[in-house]
Amino acid sequence: MLAKNLFLSLLAVSPGMTQYKPPRPAASSEPQRVFAHFIVGNAYSMTPQHWETDIIEASKAHIDGFALNVAPQDDYTDRVLQTAYDAAERIGNFSLFISFDYGSGGPWPADRVINTINAYKGRRAQFHYHGKPLVSTFEGVANAGDWPRIKSATGCIFIPNWTSMGPEGIRGVLNEIDGAFSWDAWPVGAEDKNASSDLAWMNALAGKPYMMPVAPWFYTNLPQWNKNWLWRGDDMWHYRWQQVMELQPALVQILSWNDYGETHYIGPIYEPGIPDGAARYVQNHPHDAWRELLPYYIDSYRRNLMNPHSQLRAASPGFYNPKYPMSFTDKIVYWYRLNPSTAGSSEGTTGNNPAAGQRVLPPGQISQDRVFFSTFITQPSDVYAQIGGESPTFFRVKSPGINHFSVPFYGQRGPVRFGIMRNHQEVATATGPPISDQCIGGVVDWNAFVGSSG
I need a labelling partner for 274 at 20 to 30 A (CA). Which of 28, 228, 252, 263 fits? Predict the structure, then answer.
């Protein structure tokens, strides 16, 4: 698309956004917070040192805490929760809350939910919202009737993910919930994610807090879970944060920190947590660089800035996160698939999820053969991307701050080089691994490789 060849400033209208300004939520005494979804089931052998490292890395990205997804079938949940809360309290200034997973292992018994909430609600690292310990879920609509008793016995504030009900369904349970979290973080089909579902959720909640999902990617191939599909990621990491800044939800949850099997992880790869069968497409696919621009996105959202770059620079250093102040240096963050979509077998991967009734499309129609990159620049500059030995594609950037670009493969192969040029000198460069027709095991690599000039 031609629009993809034009630079997109941070304040540009993102795909699918309405041209009008949505009504702002009522002012709240609670600061806006950003959490990352953390799969406790992937952390069974993480040491306290591993937890501390992850918490420090999340804090550097200005993430406020983890939403700890726990499943009823895991016998190590309490041990891991203890380790997580202990580590968060040692590090300090980092919050946790529990998200009960009703999807992966069946429903949670209500008494066990009560006991678990009560065991951690008094911990210093427990996140409180409007003075109450926050609790969430992954689905669990069939057990919605348990929650009046759970809330009464724990004093929690309840913001579930009951996405299967949809916004219309959630209107019927507003008396039982205190807000809602949507899992609708990816587009369906060969299009970019828009904010229409978020607006629908916000309208249905009638002023109650909305926790908005943000994700960078999605590909999964886990036969033991009957999962083998992808949804479009492409430019989404940039555009989705634009939508967050425009909609100003009460809370944000990043999907995810460590869900390796679905490739939307932004945390370090912890190999014992990779599910069986996913190592082929997770190992040697770091996503850490997706965190490098998060301080800019997150602080702009929290301050509801209309001109983020100038206003962030004018603010006192260390606003909101004095331990890890934001860096204002030229930077490049890039991501792309290492194989063209036609280079090998799809191994049955579908575009969209047919089990959810979605129309099946070729995966290469959804995940585009393009290189994606965002730059943070401090002054007007030229930026470029170059695939192999072909001529680079240049873009002129006039506005300081984050600008986003993409270029097509166009049959080009080889390493990908990126640069920021100013006054005929390169002020930042990065080189990513080669795009190649050589597919491991003959199967197209649908995961993204993410890197940066840092």
Answer: 252
Closest CA to 120 of 93, 100, 104: 100
Nearest one of 383, 192, 402 to 299, comparing CA atoms:
402
**Residue 306 to residues 10, 12, 95, 302: CA-CA distances in angstroms?**
10, 11, 28, 12
Tell me the CA distances in angstroms from 379 to 56, 152, 308, 396, one per residue in order: 30, 55, 14, 11
Residues 38, 71: contact at Cβ < 8 Å? no
Q: Would you say 419 and 376 are in contact if contact means Cβ atoms under 8 Å apart?
A: no
Cβ within 8 Å of residue 95, ≥6 positions away: 33, 35, 64, 65, 88, 125, 126, 127
326, pLDDT greater than 50: yes
Smallest CA-to-CA distance from 9 within 239, 234, 164, 346 is with 239
Mode of pairing for the β-strands spanning 414-422 and 425-435 = antiparallel
What letter represents residue 420's amino acid? I
DSSP annotation of 23 reads: P
For tokens 């809350």, name the residue.
97
The answer, yes or no, to whether the previous bond of 45 is cis (omega within 30 of 0) is no
Dist CA 21 CA 24 (whole Å): 8
pLDDT in tens, 183-200: 999 999 999 999 999 999
**Cβ distance 89 to 125 under 8 Å?**
yes
**Stated pTM of the model:** 0.93
Q: What is the dihedral of CA 26, 19, 397, 375, to 10 degrees?
A: 50
